[in-house]
Design a protein that fits this description.
Blueprint: H1 2-8, H2 15-30, E1 48-49, E2 59-60, H3 77-83, E3 89-93, E4 102-105, E5 111-114, H4 134-143, E6 148-152, H5 158-161, H6 164-170, E7 173-178, H7 186-198, E8 201-204, E9 219-224, E10 243-248, E11 251-255, H8 261-266, E12 274-276, H9 288-294, E13 298-301, H10 311-314, H11 319-329, E14 335-340, E15 353-358, E16 362-364, H12 365-368, E17 371-375, E18 382-383
Parallel strand pairs: 5-6, 6-7, 7-8, 11-12, 12-13, 13-16
Antiparallel strand pairs: 1-2, 3-4, 3-17, 4-5, 9-10, 10-11, 14-15, 17-18
Length: 384
């Protein structure tokens, strides 16, 4: 346990260093803890490349590297007082169909919205009706009048960007951030115009750029981008996703948008507590190599219901990804997730969808609705 806290010192700044040193002293007086604790969040894991029969751009991990981690034990109360004071970081993964929108409530009262779901639609057969805006209603209920300090768009696909203009026009947004691509597309132009009209600062995030929201004593935010963009980024916006990592004491959450195999192979985010599963549980993401690098304890898949809406065209999540995540997350697999196990989505039939055994630490919005997870910074997330 002492080694873990010492490892955290390298991720802290300013008075956070003083707090961390105090935590180490407290641990020394408490005696040695279990040897089964996790190492530093950035500890690297061995990886190896696949053979010629597989995609050579994908970094794979040896089977032993994908063994599930032990359940994280809460830190002692004295250590939490030294680092978080018992305040909570909460992540709301909203059920917005075949799309992604996640609100992060930071322990200091600030708010980060990662992606904004799809553009609101009118009810079927009612062209004169007001478009349905369930995300805005959910945000109103959770923000209680507070502003969104940072709106972070991972990439410019409609199911991540579509609701951003509505968010900008409805809430006070401090900073709007994206990767600066596809500026000529109508939806991107509409969103940037909404940011200008509402006074939100617009920031383009590239490699090495800081997150345009300052750290606080116990919270650190970092953009997770590859050193160089994969060639596929030129024609596939998924592979240009800008990731966001948020650390709070011994807890962390990583958003990767729709990053696929090529980009995942170039990312090095370190180990993470909670993972937003890439590309809605598609087989194009969440490689064994990426899981070996991130080693999540908890994960959430944001996807639409089988055969409904846009998921008729994508068939997410895939059964193999649910199984792979369950093996890594561990825990009792007492639940199931309905996942696609057919050969082709465009020829899908009901029998292609199966109830797949899933870890109790894996949630899916199609099954669970809104998934709200909270942590006191002790390395444990609990569903609210």
């Amino acid at each position: 346990m002492t080694a873990r806290v010492e490892g955290k010192l390298f991720r802290l700044r300013g008075d956070r260093l003083v707090r961390a040193i105090a935590a180490v002293v407290v641990l020394a007086t408490l005696g040695s803890c279990s040897k089964g604790d996790r190492s530093s969040p950035r500890a690297e894991r061995p990886t190896q490349r696949v053979g010629a029969a597989d995609d050579p751009s994908i970094v794979r991990a040896p089977p032993s590297a994908l063994a599930p981690l032990p359940t994280a034990a809460p830190l002692p109360a004295l250590v939490l007082d030294a680092c978080g004071g018992g305040r909570r970081l909460t992540v709301h993964f909203y059920d917005v169909g075949q799309a992604l929108a996640a609100l992060v409530d930071l322990p200091d009262g600030r708010h980060v919205l990662v992606d904004a779901g799809d553009m609101p639609r009118r009810p079927p057969g009612c062209e004169r009706c007001r478009p349905e805006e369930p995300l805005l209603r959910k945000l109103e209920a959770d923000l209680h009048g507070a502003p969104i300090d940072l709106l972070w768009i991972t990439h410019q696909h409609a199911d991540h960007l579509g609701g951003a203009a509505g968010v900008l026009h409805t809430f006070r947004v401090g900073v709007y951030a994206d990767n600066g691509r596809d500026a000529s597309k109508a939806e991107v132009k509409r969103t940037h115009r909404a940011a200008r009209e509402t006074g939100a600062a617009v920031r383009v995030i590239d490699r090495g750029d800081p997150v345009p929201l300052h750290d606080s004593p116990d919270v650190a935010l970092a953009a997770e981008l590859p050193v160089t963009w994969p060639e596929s980024c030129a024609h596939d916006p998924n592979e240009c996703s800008i990731g966001l990592r948020i650390d709070y004491c011994a807890s962390s959450v990583l958003f990767t948008g729709d990053a696929e195999h090529d980009e995942e192979a170039r990312l090095d985010p370190g180990e993470v507590t909670l993972l937003q599963v890439g590309h809605h549980g598609s087989e194009t993401s969440t490689t064994p190599g990426f899981l070996a690098k991130t080693r999540p304890h908890y994960a959430v898949i944001s996807a639409g219901k089988p055969g409904e809406g846009m998921n008729r065209d994508y068939c997410h999540p895939r059964a193999g990804i649910v199984t792979r995540l369950t093996r890594v997350l561990g825990g009792p697999a007492s639940q199931t997730i309905v996942a696609f196990d057919g050969e082709r989505c465009d020829r899908a039939v009901p029998s292609d969808w199966h109830a797949v055994r899933a870890s109790d630490r894996l949630w899916e919005t199609a099954r669970d609705g809104d998934v709200v997870l909270s942590t006191t910074g002790d390395g444990v997330f609990q569903r609210q």
